[in-house]
Give the backbone structure.
Amino acid sequence: MTGIVEEFLALKEESDADVLAMQVGDFYEFFADDARLVADELDLKVSEKSSHGSSYPMAGVPLTELTPYLKSLVERGYTVAVAEQRGDDDTTREVTRTATPGTLLEATGADARYLVAVVRDGDTYGLAAVDVTTGTFRLTEVEDERRALAELGRFSPEEVLPGPTLRGDDDFCEAVREDTDATLSVHGTEAFAPGKATHEVRERFGEGALRAVGVESEGPGARAAGAALDYVAETGVGVLSSLTRLQPYRADDHVALDPTTRRNLELTATMRGEREGSLAATLDHTVTAMGARRLEAWLVRPLQRRAELERRHDCVAALADNALERDAVRETLDGAADLERLAARCTSGSADPSALKRVVDTLARLPDLRERVTSSPSLADSPLGDVLDRVDAEAAADLRETVDDALADEPGGETGIFARGYDDELDELAAEHDDLVAWFDTLAERVKAESDLSRVTVDRNKTDGYYLQVGHSQTDRVPESYREVKTLKNSKRYRTEELDAKERALFRVEEERAARERELFDELRAEVASHASLLQDAGRALAELDALACFAEHASANRWTRPELRDDRTLDVTAGRHPVVEQTVEFVPNDARFGEGRRFLVVTGPNMSGKSTYMRQTALIVLLAQAGSFVPADSAAVGLVDGVYTRVGALDELAQGRSTFMVEMQELSNILHSATEDSLVVLDEVGRGTASDDGISIAWAATEYLHNEVRAKTLFATHYHELTELAARLEGVQNVHVTAEERDGDVTFLRTVADGPADRSYGIHVADLAGVPDPVVSRSRDVLERLRADEAVDVRGGSGGGSEGSEQVVFDLGSGELRATGDGGGDDGEAGGNGGRERGGGSEAGDGSDALDPEAEAVLDELRGTDVNNSSPLDLLQRVNEWQKRLD
Ligand code: ADP
Ligand code: MG
């Protein structure tokens, strides 16, 4: 025992894994700390094994049952090394495989599972993303960390391998942890080294591969790819040869979408992190796992290339318009096997006979699909056929025939894996087997005929093998040659020499047959594996048809329309809806129009009126159009955007414990840096996470900057009414508001978006509705009226307290400040109020009696001298903060 535990601990040390499963005979055992961990995580029973005075916790699972445990551990983020017995006498053990989150071949479920290696070289980042379960290998290079993180996040990786220079970069690693659920793993520095890494890539994909994909052969992309390959090889998962193709892409082929935006728009998960209620879940009518993966990939990677989008829209249009044909296509796809995954399983040697049967069954659908797509004139005119053209139909038919001819109808059943006639040797063994079985089947008849035993049966069990069983009434008649093996209550069991011999022969034949089957099956599986890229092509074609049919299905069920794509900066949506919200409520459609003099819309309206929904639906319509889908609108002209950026104010997010004002400002800063004239920006209550005066300042400055410098199409919902004044001052800014109606003190949300700023007094109606006492409600109406008129408001003392009654206060609407104007200072107050309204107009309010101290004067001078247009919001925030301190 001690020896085994020592061996376990030594192997564990060597392996670097979190947990080791070590084969001991028919079990995989976990010892010591690993046993406790496994017991805690997986409910396995721990026993104490003691030997030589020490005792060790130990837990085990049968050899054949490791997979589910392995899967659960890895899905919980652990890496698990597996040590197997090797050598003739099974005495040496070695780690044959390390299962890690990013290389878990056993993964079930439709989701892609990416391992992403990231290398930084100067400002360039190389990203290599591998999904071993599907053989997908993607490669890209991007400039700057922000884009690298955005790109990384899109893969939703399970595991990230930071290159040597990034490992010590806490900011980077922290950001990865924040944006993804990935495990960060360390892989040897040499694997990332230029010479070695790129050698790996050339070995696998051929000499010209890197050149062909346009990355520099020693650059960060190539190094990331090499390191990823090396890591996959080292884990021993055995799928390298299913990585048949390097699929490079340029990050700017896709619409920029940072992690925050993906989360805000709830593309694949809701803000709460659930799939249910996300855009992907709402849209998903796919009938295959491959199709579901493709749909998701399209949604998180909308395209900028118009030709490809028009092609998808053409396909969706054809399928949307022809319900019968669409149903036929979807029925043909329904139940198709996950060919990408099966290709990987064949390569790794883990595919079983039924998996090959499913490959056959799925390949057989290709000609059916072609028939469906070409026989109907309405589909034949669309580019749907091109999707299937990407599969070598002849090679697919050949492979299908090969495998189909080889396999029995129900492989693995009574008749074995292979069809009769496939292999002479196997047929001979099968015939021999059948003869022997027949000999045993007819033995009882023969005995009855040849002897005077009538109560005799032939049977077999595990301990005794075959035997003749004779009832006690006849045991005195059994021939001499019978050898008694067991006595039961009513009968005795016998064997004969002939039976011994036949049984030996049968066991030998069974063994030989199984060995031959294994041999042939390994060959057949290897043959299929050698066609991995064909299976992947076929899988991708089926995935694409499935995803297109899914778009069509949703479009037709929900009256979505084809967007008109434009190369200019148009965005013109008529009667748009929110794709997810429209599923659950009676939705009021709204237009969204951008154009000349309308590139920045300030959206106002009472709480809960629908501002956030309106802005999100507009962003989603653009994204859907650029994912290749139809859109929830009566019509939509969409100028292709290069990025969608959203930010929700910290206050809204704070409620969910997600964000701080600092994060809000960092993200605002990202947007101001990244967005371009071709982007769509959605800001929801930005600036609300701080005191209202500096909140307004930031919102104001950000608006000016977005309008003047960035010039992106922008939707900005705000409760800072002051911002509505910008419409009069900046040529591209327009006000829109979500309407609500007040009747008899009731607020009804109409949810229609109209031009112009919102009325401001809904807050009071809401207070009224909420049951705030009448005197308070009527008093607040009164205060509001005075404030609007810039009139001084008297401060009413409480009935019980001493009454100073006469003090007056002016509320400066511009800054949100209250100023006492007690002892006859009424005139000053008025001047102050007006001064505050004129931003940047230089308030000269500080006259005689209210002379400012020199420090305040200095602050004012700095404030006047601040060039808002050329300052970052963060910068401004810091300055405001500093001014406040000085004024205190
Ligand atoms: P706001 O951002 O103005 O506070 P929201 O956009 O969060 O308001 O909308 C509040 C609620 O109103 C949403 O949960 C949604 O159910 C409903 N809603 C919003 N817009 C519409 C609409 N156009 N038609 C129907 N219901 C809507
Ligand atoms: Mg809102």
